Amino acid sequence: MTAAPALRFERVTVRFGDRLALHDVSFAVAPGTFVALAGPNGSGKTTLLRTALGFVAPDPGAVELLGRTVDALRIVDRARHVAWVPQDESPRDDVRLGDYVLYGRFAFHGALEGETAEDLAIADRALRDVGLADRANDGILRLSGGERQRAVLARALAQTAPVLLLDEPTSHLDIGHQLDLLGRVRALVRDRGVTVLAAIHDLNLAARFADRVVVLSRGRLVADGPPSDVLSTELLAQVWGVVADLRRDARTGFPYLIPQQLLTDPGRPVGAPGRGRVHVVGGGGSAAPYLRALAEEGYRVSTGVLPLLDSDLETAEALGLAAAVEVPFAPLGPAARARNRELLGESAAIVVAPFPIGPFNAPNLDDVLPFAGRVPVFLAGPPGIAARDFTGGAASATYAALRARGAVEVLGTAGLLEALASRPTAAVAAPAPRLAAAPDG
Q: What is the Cα–Cα distance from 328 to 197, expressed in whole angstroms?
């Protein structure tokens, strides 16, 4: 007898005002499998994951979790059956990492009950699973962006839920840690029977680790099947607007795509040429969620200076964004800084991501200062930079000078988008209207 699906999406449709985010999406996820959810920015991946959590209600349509409709489950029951790793989470307090992971056990206790020995053992195992057991006593704000993403995964694992949802789990990680994290997730599926549905931007990573790949485009399901069947040059051209070569790894047989050039992308929101640009300063994965969020809202976006191989640069390249680039492990040279200042000068707003600041990349922050007061500057992430300042206090002084010139602190991507939309001067950088959904057929 075939096991009932762990997750089932039945003709799911979601609208936000006049915008159609999902249209008639139906598929099921079998227990103990790893399904990758792929698609361009704005294709509906995050919205679909949020319907599985009950955060967004389909109309019409239904989502079933372990045989029960999500909207019929109490919140505490959802927390016991499905765990969630969001795309971007910015803790405000420097809570001890071990205690942060224990948050995943709250659904198993009454309001006045403390953690048990079993809870502590589960949290310890979750930290081992993500390779952070030696950081259990550190404050979470002391972790790098990649480590913090693994900490969020550990908290989700502490829920011991049979279903795990991940929204861009590798967004803050370099390629080595991407392989490491997805390998750990793959092991959870193989060894513990966990069911995983993960939004993954990188099709090659999806092909390597997932049992199935489900592809969305403009809110519609356009492909579903094993990676060897789904990945094709035709799919990449049709959905992403990219010409690519399809090859196979001689050792594993996994398919992989090598992008060659960009075509007109029918699925990506594009800012109108006459509108201003938003420039994002970051590095080390700190800017990635802001680059994606701005692009998905239709803003024109640029970034820099970023070293080659930096994960933020990989995100920028995947989104087709303008960037100022420097060689790795080197001070920022005059040519890269000149290009960065050129992009800053063309921008109608500037975002400073919560990146670690040292002597090599401190000029990125210094070059923002002349523009503060002339265009809106937003300091993203948790307030303050003391834990990220490795310049002997120089970067903290620059931050103070930016605030004195009117820079505004915002928390996370949601806070940034709200702040951009609410400022009168942001009108020149407002997103272009979204493209209408493609007609049926």
A: 34
